[in-house]
């Protein structure tokens, strides 16, 4: 079947946006719908430097899509907004070809806002990590709105500094927000504020580890919790905690290297995908490049 055409695609490359702010003001709105035997990207609205590659269908019906931010990073004054909407019975997996970078700022804040709406549909949200450079001033806000029997597996990985170069995010400021709800009822609200070096250390906080991550999956039971825990192997450089609140599986990670944290989360995702979504693990092709 030939996918239906994208309803609308527009672009405004003007970096000043409304003329009252500095930096790139970019937005991207994506709508997915079921068309016959597969999910298609039925709607796309874009302004500024945010876009997507054409959809891939390695599993036949699930729409695999890659988000692209051509500048490669955000500086003070930049604001990115991404909205994703899945209509009933649609299924999509969304990832990115590389890490998002938040560079040093002379004062203005760089912002990234993401709203994911899943309406009796299935979304896998698997972006690569955000790298927050020393001296950055960043706000990252992700809101996940589930309706009805929506299913979701997703993660967020934050790399605070450049650990491969021995550089901490010091100085640096960041406010990290993650919220997931179903039918308006909150399932998980997270907020992490980093104002100075003290917030990077502390035995009850980040313990001096530069990488922090959270994986969330809906529809979990005790068997899924067991499967997720069975993927864990001892690693002194990566701390993993896994729990379940009602049907919400929550994985927390702290680590010294983003690739090692991402590999651990990928193993958990691969282990729980079949029982939660009825599909064997099918990693995006971009991860292999």
TrEMBL record:
UreD, UreF and UreG form a complex that acts as a GTP-hydrolysis-dependent molecular chaperone, activating the urease apoprotein by helping to assemble the nickel containing metallocenter of UreC. The UreE protein probably delivers the nickel. The gene is ureD. Its main location: cytoplasm. GO terms for cellular component: cytoplasm. The lineage of its organism: Bacteria, Pseudomonadati, Pseudomonadota, Gammaproteobacteria, Chromatiales. Keywords: Chaperone, Cytoplasm, Nickel insertion. InterPro entries: UreD. Belongs to the UreD family. This is Urease accessory protein UreD. One of its GO terms (molecular function) is nickel cation binding. It holds the Pfam family UreD. Required for maturation of urease via the functional incorporation of the urease nickel metallocenter. PANTHER family: UREASE ACCESSORY PROTEIN D. It comes from the Bacteria. It is found in: Cytoplasm. Residues 1-20 are annotated as: Disordered.
């Amino acid at each position: 079947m030939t996918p239906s055409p994208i309803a609308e695609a527009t672009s405004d490359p003007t970096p000043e946006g409304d003329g009252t702010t500095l930096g790139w003001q970019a937005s991207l709105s994506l709508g997915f719908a079921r068309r016959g035997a597969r999910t298609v990207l039925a709607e796309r609205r874009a302004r500024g430097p945010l876009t997507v590659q054409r959809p891939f269908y390695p599993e036949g019906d699930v729409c695999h899509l890659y988000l692209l931010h051509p500048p490669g990073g955000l500086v003070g004054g930049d604001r990115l907004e991404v909205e994703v909407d899945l209509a009933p019975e649609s299924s999509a997996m969304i990832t990115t070809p590389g890490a998002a970078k938040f560079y040093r700022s002379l004062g203005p804040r760089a912002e990234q806002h993401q709203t994911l709406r899943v309406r009796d549909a299935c979304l896998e949200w698997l972006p690569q990590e955000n790298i927050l450079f020393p001296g950055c001033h960043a706000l990252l806000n992700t809101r996940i709105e589930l309706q009805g029997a929506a299913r979701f597996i997703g993660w967020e990985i934050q790399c605070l500094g450049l650990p491969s170069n021995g550089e901490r995010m010091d100085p640096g400021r960041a406010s990290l927000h993650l919220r997931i709800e179903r039918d308006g009822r909150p399932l998980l609200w997270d907020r992490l504020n980093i104002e100075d070096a003290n917030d990077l250390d502390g035995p009850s906080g980040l313990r001096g580890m530069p990488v922090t991550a959270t994986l969330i999956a809906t529809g979990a039971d005790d068997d899924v919790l067991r499967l997720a825990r069975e993927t864990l192997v001892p690693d002194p450089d990566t701390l993993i905690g896994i729990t379940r609140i009602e049907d919400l599986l929550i994985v927390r990670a702290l680590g010294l290297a983003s690739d090692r944290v991402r590999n651990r989360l990928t193993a958990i995702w691969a282990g729980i995908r079949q029982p939660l979504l009825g599909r064997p693990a099918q990693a995006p092709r971009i991860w292999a490049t």
